[in-house]
Design goal:
Helix content of chain A: 25-40%
CATH architecture of the largest domain in chain A: 3-Layer(aba) Sandwich
Number of helices of chain B: 16
Strand content of chain B: under 5%
Distance between the termini of chain B: 22 Å
Shape of chain B: globular
Strand order of the largest sheet of chain A: 6-7-8-3-9-10
Oligomer: heterodimer
Chain lengths: 255, 345
């Protein structure tokens, strides 16, 4: 068990975005978080990454509580994320974007960089080589020196994933990675995620609306609706579940 | 990735440094006093502009602090280098405190201490300011500049009040100003092209994404702010030792405004731009002195209009903002220009 979410409730003023939700993610699993718009999926991501503090409940990563820790420190513990709307650093090249992920892993001090001492060169060389390794896996190495925002939408997604991988996570949170992609790209992306999981030895927690994609990819899913868990388990059972159908398509019987 | 010791970039940099040093040596020996003074001024303003650009352009935190830190640097250097007899003779309003008289050091240490004291103040300012997001830094630093000036006027035991400190030994020459300018530019470029500079740019581009990548944004902003305060303090010390007399009026908001023009004109976020902007503005201000004097326009004699050149400069700034918002260099550096040319071929 890598991540334990225990009885999380999140209130924004009078609105309850998430109500008493619990789930656990096993090591090297691909876990899906699905549900209609406004169900509280992204809020859940923001709680796990420390951007929001939960009103109640706790989150454990490798058995240690991480709720209440500053977001950047949670990254150092081994949780990285991507955003729903791609958020690359727009003035930087692809390589620099990915090097940002290595920021806390390159160990040289401020003065060592000002005076260009040996450790600066050694560490910079190391993280650059690692960056190229990651870019090779994602097939974006040829764009290394191009401005990140000059790439196509699909390539920008890959850069964002590469950047998150550079932060050396054990748990990767992906917020709608297949949004805005055509079926071919989606298929390619799913293969990529399997590869990432095996190559980098990581667990993936993802939010997605594309059911075919989720079906193909996820070992288990949780369905949220208005902040409440309405289903947890295998995706095949989820599509047959009455509550889930009701949440997605509306309540036919009582309409 | 290139492991060779002499890459093309490094050779170009080395050539530029050697040329600059040779130019400084040549200027000190051959140019007249007036030209040397302008070059001194340009060198000091390069230090100020490049460091101001680090917090404003690279880290993207809009601040209006330089005049405050320059003032602190100038006063620290003045107090440390003017000897006790000269001080007692000058301080008419109140007698100086004994510790003010006792503090003496050579010029190098005075400059270093100017920088250290400035950066310590910046460090203490950043704790309240960078805890919140937004443009609070601009407001706080604007106020900070005013407070420093008022403190300088109202503590005559230390600063000799509005009379200012005179007879500061004229230590600044092209070796000091030029040498420190070269060091400042190299240091700041080395910061920019390291993980710290990348993180600062990340904070500028998207603070949330930077946090999500494990960057302590508070720390990065504080580092940039403290570093620029250090060099502004040193620059202030050099300015004091160049002008030989300082008073609170010298460090009004106008000084910050001038630096802001320089970095915006050169291109926010470009160190090369800050250097070019400095040369452009400082040389331009000297060249346009004729605007302030009586002129003969097509046979009509006009009266002297002091301040006319600032009007013209403000107009230039407005036109830059309207038609070339990125400034002369945008966010590009010298080496990006070389790359661009290669790609065009």
């Amino acid at each position: 068990m890598i991540l334990e979410v225990c009885n999380i409730t999140k209130k924004f003023g009078g609105i309850t975005a998430i109500k008493d939700t619990s789930f656990t993610v096993n090591s090297k699993e691909i876990y899906g978080l699905i549900g209609p718009n406004g169900a509280g999926k992204t809020t859940m991501f923001n709680i796990i990454t420390g951007n929001y503090e939960p009103t109640e409940g706790s989150i454990k990563f490798h058995g240690q509580r991480i709720d209440g820790i500053k977001p950047y420190k949670i990254v150092h513990r081994g949780i990285a994320r991507t955003f729903q709307n791609i958020r690359l650093f727009k003035s930087m090249t692809v390589l620099d974007n990915i090097l940002i992920g290595f920021d806390y892993q390159a160990s040289y001090t401020y003065l060592e960089s000002i005076f260009r001492l040996p450790r600066f060169f050694k560490e910079e060389k190391r993280v650059k080589e690692r960056s190229f390794e990651i870019m090779e896996v994602l097939g974006i190495a040829q764009y290394a020196n191009e401005l990140a925002t000059s790439l196509s939408y699909g390539q920008q997604r890959k850069v964002e994933i590469a950047r998150a991988l550079a932060a050396n996570p054990q748990l990767l949170l992906l917020d709608e990675p297949a949004a805005g992609m055509n079926p071919n790209e989606t298929k390619e992306l799913a293969e990529l995620f399997f590869k990432i999981r095996d190559d980098f030895d990581i667990t993936i927690l993802l939010i997605e609306h594309d059911m075919k994609f989720v079906n193909h990819l996820c070992d288990r899913v949780m369905v949220l609706d208005y902040g409440k868990t309405i289903f947890e388990g295998h995706i095949k059972d989820a599509i047959k579940d009455e509550e889930v159908i009701k949440a997605y398509l509306g309540d036919f019987k009582h309409a | 990735m290139n492991d060779a010791i002499f890459t093309k970039d490094r050779l170009i940099n080395l050539a530029l440094i050697i040329t600059t040093i040779w130019f400084l040596w040549f200027a000190q020996h051959n140019f007249d006093e007036y030209t040397i003074r302008i070059i001194n001024n340009v060198a000091i303003f390069i230090i100020l502009a490049v460091s101001y650009n680090l917090i404003n352009g690279i880290t993207g935190q809009f601040s209006l602090e330089p005049n405050g830190f320059i003032a602190i640097g100038a006063y620290v250097t003045a107090i440390l280098t003017v000897d006790a007899d000269a001080m007692l003779y000058q301080y008419d309003i109140e007698d100086p405190y004994p510790w003010v008289l006792a503090m003496q050091s050579n010029f190098g240490w005075a400059l270093f201490l100017s920088g250290v004291i400035s950066s310590l103040l910046a460090l203490s300012l950043s704790f309240p300011v960078f805890r919140v997001r937004g443009d609070y830094l601009a407001i706080v630093t604007l106020g900070f500049g005013f407070i420093i000036r008022i403190l300088a006027i109202n503590s005559p035991e230390i600063t000799n009040g509005s009379l200012g400190i005179n007879d500061i030994p004229e230590f600044s020459n092209l070796y000091w100003t030029g040498g420190i300018a070269i060091f400042a530019v190299l240091a700041i470029l080395n910061i920019i092209y390291s993980k710290y500079g990348r993180a600062m740019k990340a904070v500028r581009d998207d603070e949330d994404a930077a946090t999500a990548m494990g960057i302590n944004t508070f720390k990065m902003k504080t580092m940039a702010f403290t570093t620029s305060a250090f060099f502004e303090g040193v620059g202030g010390g050099l300015l004091a030792a160049l002008l030989t007399s300082i008073s609170p009026d010298l460090f009004s908001f106008f000084l910050t405004f001038q630096l802001l023009i320089i970095i915006v004109l050169g291109g926010l976020g470009s160190t090369t731009g800050a250097i070019i902007g400095t040369i452009f503005v400082m040389a331009g201000l000297e060249y346009m002195r004729f605007l302030d004097e009586p002129m003969n326009l097509f046979g009509f004699e006009t009266e002297a209009m002091p301040g006319m050149r600032m009007v013209v400069f403000s107009l230039i700034l407005i036109f830059v903002m309207l038609f070339a918002r990125e400034g002369l260099m945008g966010k590009r550096e010298l080496k990006d220009l070389f790359k661009k040319k290669k790609a065009d071929k």
